Automatic annotation (TrEMBL):
InterPro entries: nSTAND1, P-loop_NTPase, Quinoprotein_ADH-like_sf, WD40/YVTN_repeat-like_dom_sf, WD40_PAC1, WD40_repeat_CS, WD40_repeat_dom_sf, WD40_rpt
Domain of life: Bacteria
Keyword Repeat: yes
Signal sequence, start to end: none
Full protein name: Novel STAND NTPase 1 domain-containing protein
Organism annotation: Streptomyces halobius
Keywords for the protein's UniProt record, in alphabetical order: Repeat, WD repeat
Length: 1367
């Protein structure tokens, strides 16, 4: 099949169309367009001012980006379209000036999965101007029906639309239902939505005045009465279930009182909804669902009679509404059983037949012309010929229309230079081929288990009739997953089918996109036909099992006799995977019931006794099965939301732990998630939350919202946050900001209404305004910032200026200065900690700095910070004032060195990872962490202890369903408050045990941890309080090159450092705050030294290192000289002066490391790992040659090999670890396995067991102090724990644990504690607390309020509400 051309992407199509409009508008300067957008003063759906930079418009035209919101594009169109219309009143391409078509094109560009591959290709090309090729919008809907907004592309049914309008016009006089009847795929839904509705809204049914008609569209679904009552609330009392009626005289369907009540209710609704006296029109599409999905005959009949009564004539009164029903032709016979429908079919119905040849040609060519596409000569004729029958009138099968549209969609994706080609049509496979190929391609991309799940999923979305063709049926995603025997694979297959547009997934429902798929895809057709009777039986069985489950498993509904025999025989032949879990339980219960009946009928006492015993056993088994199923469901739900809502996932893990407290897997989940940030939601706002700000004492939180209020929250107890008083009101538009003064007594808020309000919050429970609002701003105030002394307030304004306000008298603030220089709206401001510098970010993509050394005479700093390619949303100074962070709509964060404000410079490359604009950035109080909130609904955390080498910490914070507008740290540095578009504030508990580094080593007493980072420096940390590690002294840098390995001597006074420059150096760390080198580095000959190729002997006298590529060297470590280094030497090393390092080396002991004997030979690959046995008599080495070797080092100068190499791994050995008793050696390899060896007799070492479970290479191993647990870390980003009490029978302890980021080479149990040190991410070392009780306490204290009753019943419907952190 021909590959899609590079211009087939939706993004490119969007760029083509925008370039054409730009050309038609006279190619105005981009800057002028951007300024015109500002003058429009438009706001987006959240009330924020719409700003579009010239660079963004340029990116749109070049297909580099697509607008994130349509409001931004609409503003640009409102500038360009009038210009283009002035120059050319009639558009060069139909629809070029139509905003609705532009919205459709934009939707394709941001969401169409077909365009993604091409998009990625376009982004890699040089950013040249896209050619103005017409046809950027796809006017064909594929298998989906045409919607109202697609009316401009709906061709070929004009005659049918007029006929349907005529039917309604006649019904206005006579009353009664109007019915549109047609075959499946004939286009009934398209005619109603894209043909009839626009005609009605354009006044086609009016009285000559052209007034539009109000139109209500609905689909019956499984409960048509409930749907009707939802759409017309006045009918709720009439449409209640007929079985529950208590007023027969008024509610009995079909009676005159009933018709009167319906007419009154509908008339009331019509008067409320209709803007004129014209009667509304009610369209009931897919009316056949009243037969296929509604199981209640009484409900179906009542639904029909209500619709009939609503449009029935009454003497002297016009009909309240007009009602038209769209129904499939194969339900004609069922309709005749209802007098109301029979009357409509006899007097007021229209049959939607096939298109004529002329109409068919118009349906093919009309949409193409509407978007400026050309058709290659002969293409239209080929399509018409392919779909037409051989009859004399050239008609076709009506059901082929959706297939035709799908083929044309595929052809459009293969268009060439604005033309639909014959080659593209053939490559798409024509009519049947287009659908079959798409379905088959989606099917082929699934693994075997997912294919089985997809087959069962599709069959459950099909309803089989005894004598009618198969039809679609709706389901819900949760129901399909709950009923599946493999919910994960069901979800995976569903996503694949949705991406291929074979299945439509709405907010609540799942359904096959069109019934044409049931006949065009051979595989699905075969599934339906190959065992039709079996599928009918399965369908009935699953429906009956759902009814049984819904009635609390009423035994009277169970199968008996022949029915049970048929179902049981079929189930045994088909197997359980072909049934839902409810159906399996239902059938098993039926079988058990039959057995009980048989036994009882025999009447034997012995049989009764046996029956009782079996019943008890069955109950136990059933209870265990149910318990297993519930436990599995809880774990599955926790896994499903782990990435999107970790706080909810943690609560679900707690539920699993409560269900099975002794389950190691559940315990490991708690330990794994305890180091992830977790959140407590604060509910109260009714609009997006734009800013979060803590009071200086950290006891109060202020939040500003789109709901025009500021709320104060008591967060003194993080585990029980609560609102303080009533919301602060007064602003007349959305509130953009609310910040505390440095003394915490005053709160300043600003709004889109252009005012600033000050509030006295000394008693935060009873705040009150200070003075009158400050005015004078032209437009929105985006942000406020207090100066450190609290005497000045800076405001970022839409009028391109920053205003400084004098607050010496808070009751009468006055303007101190207006700072100008930005060429677009200013978004953000921030004071430096010393108050001498102000930073501002604006829509001109720049950051400006201002000298405020004299606040009365602020001066601009000449250097403008550039680098961002889109508007700057946020700026923030680090607590030491040396670093400035900025977040931009270009999706990046940048760090700037502003230690010398007059000479600022960028620090490294932009921080990337977000997929949407960065709205907010904030430093933690100690300056070691940076938080950033983004429109992609996440917040990221960055380790910025060394701002030249920042690294992301863990996974982004998720859980919001809206944009992450605000981030703000509490004074304790452990709490982060975020504000989001879903109206929620979340208090995140941020782990504080993160340290900068890639690798690490514990001091033998466990109180100090050494880490080495990408900046080539070593840091020593006090970890006596593991939750709050403290940096000891300044980082020190050994010899040039990155640090590959660290090892403490047994006494903890010396640390050996192996560097990338192939050298090893010893440092005196007796005082960890003042490390100093012991002499110069000792060069090694190896080209590569593994990360663990460094080890001290237990007595501290011998050091083992790699020597050259395949050998090992033992070194004598003598006693250190008393004064080998001074503080000045240490300081010079910290400055990195090579001459000073030379002086230090000369003053130290140049014979500090002396080789012991000749290098040890034998390996045939690089030496990756070295480790001494606990008794110091044996050295183990692991190599890239896939072997481990043991060496007798009792006499280090005469070391010799012990026994044969340990073989068995099928890849390089990366890591080794001895058990504390020295009897077991563990080895980890690139073959993804861990092997355990019995080395009690080193000369006769034997293999004990192989541990599997990692999906990638093993990178690190460590034994617990008691030797009963082994931890392994792999490149699959997982840590696994193993019970090695009996090494020959080692078993995994629960499931693997994720460190919430990529693992590295450091993994070590802390001596004498329950902590596990682990490298997590590219530059972070973490300490994990392995205490399950501590994990439970943290989860409960940081996620309180997450597990509401509604959330519980949504995720755990089979369990009674019992939150794991009950008050």
């Amino acid at each position: 099949m021909e590959a899609l051309s590079s211009d087939s992407g939706a993004r490119t199509a969007f760029a083509e169309r925008l370039a054409l409009l730009y050309k038609e508008a006279g190619n105005p300067p981009l800057k002028r367009v951007a300024e015109s957008v500002v003058r429009l003063q438009r706001v987006d759906e959240r009330g924020r001012p719409v700003r579009v930079s010239a660079q963004r418009i340029s990116d749109w035209r070049r297909a580099k980006n697509v607008p994130a919101q349509f409001t931004a594009l609409a503003a640009v169109l409102h500038v360009l379209v009038p210009e283009a219309r002035r120059l050319r009143p009639v558009p060069v391409s139909t629809g070029l000036y139509d905003l609705a078509q532009w919205q459709r094109l934009w939707e394709h560009a941001v969401a169409d999965p077909v365009g993604d591959p091409a998009t990625s290709v376009e982004e890699k090309r040089p950013p040249v101007e896209a050619p103005a090729i017409p046809g950027g919008v796809c006017p064909y809907r594929g298998l989906s029906s045409y919607r109202q907004q697609d009316a401009r592309w709906f061709f070929g049914r004009e005659r049918s639309t007029d006929a349907l309008v005529a039917q309604l016009r006649a019904a206005e006089k006579t009353g009664g239902l109007v019915m549109l009847v047609g075959a499946s795929g004939a286009g009934k839904s398209s005619l109603l939505n894209a043909g009839l509705v626009p005609a009605l809204e354009n006044g086609a049914l009016g009285d000559g005045s052209g007034r539009p008609r109000e139109v209500l569209r609905l689909v019956p679904g499984g409960d048509p009465l409930a749907e009707l009552a939802r759409r017309i609330p006045e009918l709720a009392h009439v449409a209640s279930a007929p079985e529950t009626a208590r007023e027969p005289a008024a509610k009995e369907p079909g009676t005159p009182p009933f018709r009167h009540v319906v007419r009154e209710a509908v008339t009331t609704w019509a008067r409320r909804e209709a803007s004129s006296a014209a009667r509304p029109v009610v369209i009931v599409d897919q009316f056949e669902e009243a037969f296929t999905l509604c199981s209640s005959e009484a409900g179906r009949r009542a639904f029909i009679q209500i619709l009939h009564a609503a449009c029935a004539p009454s003497p002297g009164d016009p009909v309240p509404v007009l009602v038209i029903l769209g129904i499939r032709a194969d339900f004609y016979e069922q309709c005749l059983a209802y007098p109301e429908l029979a009357d409509a079919l006899q007097h007021r119905h229209m049959v939607l037949g096939p298109l004529t040849t002329t109409e068919l040609r118009e349906a093919v060519t009309g949409p193409a012309k509407a978007v400026g596409l050309e058709l290659e000569p002969g293409l239209a004729e080929m399509i018409v010929r392919e779909v037409s029958a051989d009859g004399p009138r050239g008609t076709h099968n009506a059901g082929v229309l959706p297939l035709l549209s799908h083929a044309l969609l595929a052809t459009w994706q293969r268009r060439k230079a604005g033309r639909l080609t014959l080659a593209g049509y053939r490559a798409a496979g024509g009519i049947q081929g287009a659908v079959a190929a798409t379905a088959e391609r989606a099917w082929s991309g699934l693994d075997p288990a997912a294919r089985t799940a997809a087959r069962l999923l599709l069959l459950r979305l099909v309803r089989l009739g005894e004598d009618t063709q198969a039809t679609r049926r709706r389901g819900t995603r949760r129901q399909l997953a709950a009923e599946s025997t493999d919910p994960n694979k069901t979800d995976e297959s569903l996503e694949a089918l949705v991406r291929a547009r074979l299945v439509t997934l709405d907010a609540e429902t799942v359904e096959i996109t069109h019934e044409a798929l049931l006949h065009a895809w051979p595989r699905l057709r075969d599934w339906i036909d190959e065992d039709r009777n079996g599928n009918l039986l399965r369908q009935r069985l699953e429906e009956d099992s759902r009814a049984w489950e819904g009635s609390n498993r009423d035994t009277s509904l169970l199968y008996r006799g022949t029915r049970l025999e048929q179902a049981h025989n079929w189930a045994e032949s088909a197997g359980d995977p072909f049934l839902t879990r409810n159906a399996v339980d239902f059938l098993a219960a039926s079988v058990r019931l039959r057995k009980r009946i048989v036994w009882i009928s025999r009447g034997a006492v012995a049989a009764v006794v046996v029956l009782a015993m079996l019943a008890v056993g069955s109950a136990v088994v059933a209870w265990q099965q149910r318990d297993d199923a519930v436990f599995a469901q809880v774990l599955a739900e926790a896994d499903r939301v782990q990435d999107t809502d970790p706080s909810l996932s943690a609560q679900l893990d707690l539920v699993a732990h409560h269900l099975r407290p002794d389950d190691e897997g559940a315990n490991n989940r708690l330990i794994s998630i305890v180091n992830a940030p977790l959140a407590t939601p604060l509910l109260g706002h009714t609009g997006a939350v734009y800013l979060t700000s803590f009071s200086p004492d950290g006891r109060t939180l202020a939040t500003a919202s789109y709901d025009r209020t500021v709320r104060l929250w008591d967060v003194s107890d993080r585990t029980h946050p609560k609102p303080l008083g009533k919301p602060l009101t007064g602003h007349t538009s959305w509130v953009s900001t609310a910040v505390f003064s440095p003394d915490g007594d005053t709160l300043a808020s600003a709004s889109d209404d252009g005012t600033i309000r000050l509030w006295d919050v000394r008693d935060p429970g009873h705040p009150h305004p200070i003075g009158a609002p400050s005015t004078g701003h032209d437009g929105t105030i985006s942000l406020l910032a207090f100066s450190p002394d609290g005497r000045t307030l800076a405001s970022a304004n839409q009028d391109r200026a920053v205003r400084l306000w004098d607050l010496d008298d808070p009751h009468r603030p006055r303007t101190r200065a207006v700072l100008t220089g930005h060429t677009a709206a200013v978004r953000s401001v921030a004071f430096s900690p010393d108050g001498r510098t102000l930073a501002s970010g604006a829509d001109d993509d720049t950051i400006r700095l201002w000298n405020l050394a004299d606040p009365r005479r602020p001066k601009p700093i000449d250097t403008v910070l550039t680098g961002h390619t889109d508007l700057v949303h946020s700026v923030a100074f680090s607590p030491d004032g040396r670093t400035l962070a900025s977040g931009s709509a270009d999706d990046t964060i940048r760090l700037w060195d502003v230690a010398a404000p007059h000479h600022p410079k960028p620090l490294g490359a932009p921080l990337t990872g977000h997929t949407a604009p960065v709205w907010s950035v904030a430093f933690s109080p100690n300056g070691t962490m940076l938080a950033a909130g983004s429109a992609d609904s996440t917040a990221s955390l960055w380790n910025v202890r060394n701002p030249k080498h920042p690294s992301q910490v863990g996974e982004p914070l998720a859980g919001s369903s809206g944009e992450m507008y605000a981030v703000g740290f509490g004074p304790d540095g452990r709490t982060l408050a975020t504000g989001t578009g879903d109206s929620k504030v979340r208090l995140w508990s941020i782990p504080t045990s993160d340290m900068i580094g890639r690798i690490g080593a514990f001091r033998p007493d466990g109180r100090v941890l050494a880490t080495a980072a990408r900046d080539e420096r070593v840091r020593l940390w006090n970890v006596k309080a593991p939750n709050r590690p403290v940096l000891l002294g300044k980082p020190f840098r050994p010899e040039k090159g990155d640090v590959r390995s660290l090892a403490f001597s047994p006494d903890g006074h010396t640390i050996a450092v192996l560097t990338g420059s192939r050298a090893v150096q010893l440092w005196n760390v007796t005082d960890p705050s003042r490390p100093a080198p012991y002499g110069p580095p000792v060069a090694l000959r190896t080209r590569f030294a593994g990360p663990e190729a460094l080890a001290f002997s237990p007595d501290g006298h011998t050091l083992a290192t790699a020597h050259d590529d395949r050998t090992i060297q033992l070194w004598n470590v003598g006693a250190p000289p008393p004064d080998s280094a001074s503080p000045s030497d240490s300081a010079s090393l910290d400055r990195g002066d090579p001459h000073d390092r030379g002086d230090t080396h000369d003053r130290g002991d140049t014979h500090r490391l002396l080789p012991l004997g000749a290098p040890l030979t034998g390996h045939k690959g690089y030496v990756n790992s070295l480790v001494f046995s606990p008794d110091g008599r044996t050295l183990a080495s692991g190599s890239a040659d896939g072997t481990a070797r043991l060496w007798n080092v009792s006499a280090p100068r005469r070391a010799a090999p012990l026994g044969a190499p340990l073989k068995g791994h099928r890849g390089p050995i990366n890591t080794l670890a001895y058990s504390p008793d020295g009897h077991t050696l563990a080895s980890g390899s690139d073959d993804n396995t861990v092997r355990l060896w019995n080395v009690s007799a080193p000369r006769k070492a034997t293999h004990l067991s192989t541990l599997t479970g990692h999906a990638q290479a093993i990178a690190s191993l460590t034994f617990s102090q008691d030797g009963r647990t082994l931890a392994s870390g792999g490149n699959d980003d997982m840590v696994r724990l193993w019970n090695v009490t009996h090494p020959s029978k080692a078993t995994p302890i629960g499931r693997s644990m994720s460190p919430n980021a990529r693992t590295g080479n450091f993994l070590s149990f802390s001596p004498h504690s329950r902590m596990l040190g682990i490298s997590s991410g590219t530059g972070t070392v973490r300490l994990w607390n392995l205490d399950t009780d501590a994990a439970m306490r943290r989860i409960c204290s940081t996620t309180r309020g997450v597990m509401t009753p509604d959330t519980w019943h949504e995720y755990l419907p089979r369990l009674s509400y019992a939150p794991p952190c009950d008050e």
